[in-house]
Amino acid sequence: MPNSILIVLHQEHSTPGRVGRLLRERGYDLDIRRTPLGQPLPDTMDEHAGAVVFGGPMSANDPDDWIKRQTDWIGAVLKSGKPYLGLCLGAQMLVRQLGGKVETHPHGHAEIGYYDLRPTDPHGHGFAEEIGVAWPGRVYQWHREGFDTPGCCETLAEGDIFPNQAFRCGERAYGLQFHPEVTYAMMCRWTVRAHERMALPGARQRHEHLGGWFLHDAAVRRWLDGFLDHWLSEPKPREASAPILAPGAPILAPAPPVSRPIEVAAPRRAPAPAPHPVVGLPA
């Protein structure tokens, strides 16, 4: 059985943070690819036990060829039946692959800092029972875009500004809008290198980021530890499960979203023009 996890990063100096450390502690090697720098993704998942696609300063809506190729490549991961985890941009690319939409907030709001997180009922509460760890009440965010959850998926957690925060597709593919991988050092670096983001509507100030770490990170760390154990394990049968993408099966056709859209009091905006402004996390 492969003992390597494919790690997809989107900047020259980005790191897999706490997710990378926890995977190494579990005995996995990390095969790091930086796709915007021209490093290719494998044609199959035969040599890898799973894939984690991290965030970045680009948008899943951008017209760059590598973004289109990588979004298509996610379909091969789903077909393989191997675990897939998308964080921020990685979750938004998964949504696009499944036919969902990625959009900015209708009022220009952003989530930069710590924000409330709630498990959905019944899927989110049931997932906490599956992994044996409660969801954290507040999580670290760094984004100006959110997503609809495709109808073939289960929404697991929600928030106030961007409703859809975590979802599961089948048994082994997950998308998280938030950043459980962030370490204190990464937070310090992001809030310095991209300090202008804290001027966006709804963004927290730097002292709130750093102070929030000591208030909220212990719960995030416990949750991520339990989540990764569950994500890496063979799935167990459960009642009323979401459709499973069996190896070799076609990717599910796009379905209408079943969760709340991003819009809260304004009509749906047209798709963002290309090229898209920087929306993700700094290096």
Structure description:
The protein is α/β, with parallel strands linked by helices and 283 residues long. The protein is built from six helices and twelve strands. The protein has helices at 17-25, 65-80, 89-97, 123-131, 184-193, 206-232; strands spanning 4-9, 29-34, 50-53, 84-87, 102-104, 111-116, 118-119, 138-143, 145-147, 153-158, 164-169, 173-176. Strands 2-1-3-4-12-11-10-7 form an eight-stranded mixed β-sheet, sandwiched between helices. Strands 5-9 form a two-stranded antiparallel sheet. Strand 10 and strand 11 form a beta hairpin. Helix 2 packs across helix 3 (89-97) and helix 5 packs across helix 6. The chain is globular and about 45 Å long.
Tell me briefly what this model is:
By secondary structure, the protein is α/β, with parallel strands linked by helices. 28% of the residues lie in helices and 20% in strands. The protein has an eight-stranded mixed β-sheet with strand order 2-1-3-4-12-11-10-7, with helices on both faces. The chain has a two-stranded antiparallel sheet with strand order 5-9.
SS-derived structural category = alpha/beta
Helices and strands, in N-to-C order?
A: EHEEHEHEEEHEEEEEHH
Radius of gyration: 17 Å
Q: Give start-end ranges of low-pLDDT stretches.
A: 240-283
Q: Order of strands across the biggest sheet? A: 2-1-3-4-12-11-10-7
The count of strands amounts to 12
So what's the overall shape? globular
Helix content: 25-40%
Largest sheet features: 8 strands, mixed
